[in-house]
Input
Amino acid sequence: MLVRDRLDVLFEDEEFAALYPSDGRPGFSPGQLALVSVLQFAENLSDRAAADAVRTRIDVKYALGLELEDPGFDYSVLSEFRARLAEGDAADRLQRLAEAGLLKAGGRQRTDATHVLAAVRTLSRLELVGESLRAALEELAEADGDWLLTLIEPEWDKRYGRKVEIGKVPGGKAGVTALAETFGRDGQKVLAAAWAPDAPPRLRVLPQVEILRRVWVHHYYWDPRGHLRWRDGHALPPASLRFDSPYDTDAHYCVKRDTVWSGYRAHFTETCTAGLPEVVVHVATTIAPVQDGELTQKIHDDLAEGGLAPAEHVVDAAYISPAQIERARRVHGITLLGPVVPDHSHQAKAGSGFDKSAFTINWERRQATCRQGAVSREWGPLRISGHDYIQVKFGKSTCLACPVRPQCIASATRPRALSLLPTRELHEIQTSNRLDQYTKDWQRRYAIRAGIEATLSQNVRNCGLRRARYRGLARTHVQHDLTALACNLTQIADWIAEPTAVHRRATRFHALCTAATCPQKITNGVAVLGLGPVR
Output
């Protein structure tokens, strides 16, 4: 109610004009449906509960500007509206906040990500291939049962007639391989029949048949004798390419430190400017294997396009690199603040040897000079894991005769070599940031990043952020957009409202400890705090 009083109508129908149904169904106000969706996520309600709230709750009717007698709408309308949001990529609506003066370009922003579990059952590899085949058989039975009937074998009903759930397989690894190759032969029979010249062409383009084909490519191969074989785990395609479920092909497996999950990642960027409420201004949803640093450029480009680029963007180490710092400053004028990955050399870790910072780099002459005054002899390009570097090598004879060699290199025969970033600017950014991040001023500025973790925690606990409600990347992104808007609604309402003092009654033990440390509060043998006589 406070937000409506301050912002009036949060979503205008004109913003969602393209989302009106065009097939004769009743045209419910898209602006009202958008606000209902936000309120629904703010209270973590189901579609049915949200529709009931519109019909029965006065505060919801007030927020929507409805008459008390308004009958509301059927809960299925919300699902249809989200589907149109996913198709039109129209879930991000922050303009009203800017118009109300609650959101401005510049200032400070911070970003972090959290894992999101897909709304599908976690499957083992065996269960995945079995369930993929079962899903394809179900779709084929509905599309052309007579054609499928000629392929069915007597054992198929037991194998694929119900949900595939596999516990411990007798025979160990050999038993697992044998069962997997049984699934493989059954699936290959279906695929070969679907691609036969006399098969109806429409069967080949059925979604679950195409998923079956791709799952078989991922998990099986043909040996030299022409037999279909089960792939070993190390021979599988990358997690970003293979499926974890036939019912959500956007859900992928990922491991991050101690967290293992199948699903997505949600990246939230929020403002943290003094004098204004903290609101989420950007939401990105990716498949789980996409690393955080791959989103930095997109976040900056999207914010700049919307006129919301910050002056300073605070992130953790996963989002930052010297190249990203340079691009953010050059393209958008953004100061990207975060810890640059430290030097991982054994000299830097020991803290007693000559790490990279102990060498003087002369970029004009393309030389490096060590603490003993020796000058490098080689300077050339180097490529490591798809990234470009410059390799600098010192003379072998000079290094072997060096009196402080043990502090410089552990090898008994090789000369010292350095790997530098490809340009002088990137090298200087790396060096200066590594030094700055140990200063108290830098740590004070960076401390504000912790607030985004609180925002993610709030959305996880109150809005169910960490579990996808829907299947597919597009619809999951709509969920995250609505979650962010619901978070904004709550935080703006708290910011507008007058703070109320919280009075908590002290526990008896706390009161006793207070009395014991404050003797002046004890008079006439009776504790003023109401604990009874003092003995």
Observations:
- The longest helix spans residues 125-149.
